């Protein structure tokens, strides 16, 4: 028996999704032509599953800054900041992030995943409680597992359930940390943050908001759901990532809490991993500047999101509860979903396929994410393809007879 035998079932499921050129989990981009187009299996393809919300991955300024940083500082830092020291870029980016959010402290991490691992495992200790939305991202659950706090889940986006659970803890002396997301990554819905902030105030808990998918997307200046909901003063910790709106990689946390700096020697996923490379720091800084200086990108993103969301929902597809840059179409069974995904790809459209149990509704999802850089024509092409294939597979009713090929 192999040490990997315990994964036999998983391996079978993975292989059953098809051979390399049609298996959604093995997809390879031969080339990336722009932030919205690439080449997959030799075919030019519209990219509609990249989280590249502002389309900044090919921004000339970001590329220039990145190249200049490689020339000045080299390709990597080759170590952790605690052991090997920080580069000036790390500090500059932390200052820029803190300033953007109007907070006193900022810390950057090598990924968004590690930002959550760090904060969740460290902020809440042995006598404390983590109160997590049940649809939380894996990095939040993993952070909870890495730490020692008691973990309590409340019903997704349900402030009353949150309140009930916190009230039961009122005689327990430990700190309570509520964790929610600005935009949930699977269905694109947002936390009811004003109500959650009220529960936080009433119960004396702390509040952490993961703005991974909402920074650069929501709020008058792009600070995310906390800004859009007008409750920034109630949010103790904002966590996010550079891998979506800012088009690079890395994570961050900003806060006003006294004593924040101790986290640099307390968060193990910060201390024991190599720091962000100079090129990444530099392009992130430039992308942040662009995001701040060009609010028009957010307007285009919102328009594009609405065009895709309303286009698909008016065809009869089952989409998430609100228009957002993440638009997911639910399909009844895995087999149809894999076929759907492959037919879209053959038609020149790449979206993500999310399969249960990784989906909140336990139904497979064709998950699209839109960018400010998509043209109305690309979006209309995508909607037309969804319509055609959706009818052929019986996911939506046929408007006119179509032959199944
Ligand atoms: N938080 C949320 C809500 C996410 O969706 C993700 C990634 N999709 C992360 C954190 C992790 O970010 P990263 O991929 O940049 O590590």
From TrEMBL:
GO terms for molecular function: pyridoxal phosphate binding; transferase activity. SUPFAM superfamilies: PLP-dependent transferases. Keywords: Pyridoxal phosphate, Transferase. The keyword Transferase applies. InterPro entries: Aminotrans_II_pyridoxalP_BS, Aminotransferase_I/II_large, AON_synthase_class-II, PyrdxlP-dep_Trfase, PyrdxlP-dep_Trfase_major, PyrdxlP-dep_Trfase_small. Coiled coil: none annotated. Its cofactor is pyridoxal 5'-phosphate. Residues 45-384 form the Aminotransferase class I/classII large domain. PROSITE patterns: AA_TRANSFER_CLASS_2 (PS00599). Belongs to the class-II pyridoxal-phosphate-dependent aminotransferase family. This is 8-amino-7-oxononanoate synthase.
């Amino acid at each position: 028996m192999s040490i990997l035998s315990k994964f036999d079932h998983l391996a079978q499921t993975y292989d059953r999704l098809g051979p390399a050129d049609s298996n959604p989990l093995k997809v390879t981009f031969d080339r990336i032509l722009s932030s919205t187009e690439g080449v997959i299996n030799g075919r030019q393809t519209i990219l509609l599953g990249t989280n590249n919300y502002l389309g900044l991955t090919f921004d000339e300024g970001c590329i220039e800054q990145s190249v200049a940083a490689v020339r000045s500082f080299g390709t990597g830092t080759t170590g952790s900041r605690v052991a090997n020291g920080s580069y000036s870029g790390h500090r500059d980016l932390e200052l820029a992030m803190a300033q953007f959010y109007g907070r006193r402290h900022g810390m950057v991490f090598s990924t968004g995943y590690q930002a959550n691992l760090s904060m969740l495992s460290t902020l809440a200790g042995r006598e404390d409680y983590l109160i997590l939305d049940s649809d939380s991202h894996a990095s939040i659950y993993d952070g909870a597992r890495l730490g020692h706090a008691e973990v309590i889940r409340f019903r997704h986006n349900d402030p009353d359930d949150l309140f009930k659970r916190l009230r039961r803890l009122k005689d327990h002396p430990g700190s309570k940390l509520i964790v929610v997301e600005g935009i949930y990554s699977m269905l694109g819905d947002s936390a009811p943050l004003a109500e959650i902030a009220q529960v936080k105030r009433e119960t004396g808990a702390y509040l952490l908001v993961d703005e991974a998918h909402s920074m650069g997307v929501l709020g008058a200046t792009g600070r995310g759901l906390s800004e859009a909901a007008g409750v920034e003063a109630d949010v103790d910790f904002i966590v996010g990532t550079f891998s979506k709106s800012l088009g690079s990689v890395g994570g961050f946390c900003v806060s006003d809490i006294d004593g924040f700096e101790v986290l640099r020697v307390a968060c193990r996923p910060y201390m024991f991993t190599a720091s962000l490379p100079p090129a990444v720091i530099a392009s992130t800084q430039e992308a942040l500047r662009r995001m701040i200086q060009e609010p028009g990108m957010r307007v285009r993103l919102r328009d594009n999101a609405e065009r895709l969301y309303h286009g698909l929902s008016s065809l009869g597809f089952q989409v998430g509860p609100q228009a957002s840059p993440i638009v997911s179409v639910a399909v009844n069974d895995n087999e149809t979903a894999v076929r759907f995904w492959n037919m879209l790809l053959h038609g020149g459209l790449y979206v993500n396929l999310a399969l249960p149990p990784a989906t909140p509704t336990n139904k497979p999802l064709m998950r699209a994410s839109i960018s400010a850089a998509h043209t109305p024509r690309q979006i209309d092409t995508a909607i037309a393809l969804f319509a055609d294939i959706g009818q052929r597979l019986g996911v939506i009713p046929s408007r006119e007879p179509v032959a199944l090929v």
